[in-house]
Amino acid sequence: MTAVLIDGKAVAARVRATLKDEVAAFTAATGIQPGLATVLVGGDPASEVYVASKRKSSVAVGLADLHQHLPEDATQQQVEELLHRLAADPAVSGILLQLPVPAHLDAAPLIELIPFEKDVDGLTTMSVGLLAQNKPGLRPCTPSGVIELLDAYDVPIEGANVVVIGRSELVGRPVAQLLVNRNATVTITHSRTKDLAAVCRTADIIVAAVGVKGLVTADFVKSGAAVIDVGIHRGPEGLSGDVDFAPAAEVAGFITPVPGGVGPMTIAMLLGNTLRAAQLQHSLASASASASASA
Ligand SMILES: Nc1nc2c(c(=O)[nH]1)N[C@@H](CN(C=O)c1ccc(C(=O)N[C@@H](CCC(=O)O)C(=O)O)cc1)CN2
Predict the structure, then answer these.
(1) Is 142 close to ligand 1, i.e. is its CB under 6 Å away?
(2) Is residue 1 domain-resident?
(3) Is 197 a domain residue?
(4) What is the total count of domains within the chain?
(5) ipTM score of the complex?
(6) Are 243 and 255 in contact (CB under 8 A)?
(7) Chain-wide mean pLDDT for the chain?
(8) CATH code: domain of residue 170
(9) Atom 19 in ligand 1: which residue has the minimum CA distance?
(10) Where is the secretion signal located (predicted)?
(11) In terms of domains, do 73 and 174 share one?
(12) In the chain, what percentage of residues exceed pLDDT 90?
């Protein structure tokens, strides 16, 4: 392998260590322990693993674990009622509805019930709008993790030609927006893109977030490019990504593995968002208290 291996586990561990100190300082200064309410509906096995990991990591950095579990057959109304309750609960700093939800539920209107200041997944229309306008707000976790990894390895973003493969609301669109906000030149590709390999060969950075195992082969990669793999596929030989790793690593300058690349960053960024959500709510409450006092 000639590429530098981007070690997401190590970067995530550093992010968590810094956060632990920041959470302790915030709690000492305000008396508030930020709390994360993960909401899991049903028992999708991968979601159970991810939510368990989110809960464990939250506690390890000093956040309160306010997890909620609803049964597989929970109705849309039951999930709505839970989200309304969490939205109104001052002990809850962040709310995350684990995706996917069972097929009989409609996730989009449920996500909209999360107030923007508690939207630690950055998926509400308000958060998406704030990102599009490059205004302060909570950003989606996997996309911010991708940026954090590029920065950790000093991969230049400003002026870079980036090709994002996939246009999902969870990863493709927001990562493209974050990169544009950092002055990259971004091409979003999808199932109708003509000659995807040729488009990818123009890229200084490829972000593969398409959900097709091994789609990105070595001939997609310009020599020295950074290849960021967001895909996760479970097979008989274990986990793999959207990138055909070993051959691509012979051509790339930087590459993320699966597992151990972007995945661990998703959770680290969620923890950071939960602290930021608590800080935001604290300043909103202080501003509202001083406005009432001076009225
Ligand atoms: N509400 C959300 N739902 C989902 C999100 C999300 O950001 N918000 N992302 C994915 C799943 N996900 C977090 O929820 C997630 C995926 C992967 C990892 C991770 O650490 N992966 C490890 C491998 C772990 C394993 O053994 O499976 C790795 O890549 O090294 C963490 C979180 C969909 N749903």
Answers:
(1) yes
(2) no
(3) yes
(4) 2
(5) 0.98
(6) yes
(7) 97
(8) 3.40.50.720
(9) 263
(10) none
(11) no
(12) 96
Question: For residue 100, is the peptide bond before it cis, meaning its omega torsion is within 30 degrees of 0?
Answer: yes
Residues 6+ apart with CB under 8 A from 90: none
Is a pLDDT exceeding 90 seen at residue 57?
A: yes
Does 276 map to a domain?
A: no
Q: Taking a C-beta distance cutoff of 8 angstroms, is the pair 199, 187 a contact?
A: yes
Query: What does R_g of the chain's alpha carbons equal in angstroms?
Result: 20
Between the alpha carbon of residue 280 and those of residues 7, 84, 120, 262, 266, the distances in Å are 31, 19, 12, 26, 21
Give the residue, by CA position, lying nearest to ligand 1 atom 10: 99
Residues 257, 145 share a domain: yes
Q: pTM of the entire structure?
A: 0.97
Binding site listing for NADP(+)? 166-168, 232
Please indicate, yes or no, whether residues 173 and 247 belong to a single structural domain of this protein: yes
Residue 242 has pLDDT above 90, yes or no: yes
Range of the domain at 69: 31-115
How confident is the model over 26-40, as pLDDT tens digits? 999 999 999 999 999
Ligand 1 center–CA 29 separation, angstroms: 32
CATH number, domain containing residue 104: 3.40.50.10860
For residue 292, is pLDDT > 90?
no
Cα angle 92, 95, 100 (rounded to 5 degrees) comes to: 155
- Residue at a domain's end among 60, 80, 115: 115
Catalytic residue numbers, as ranges = 54, 98, 121
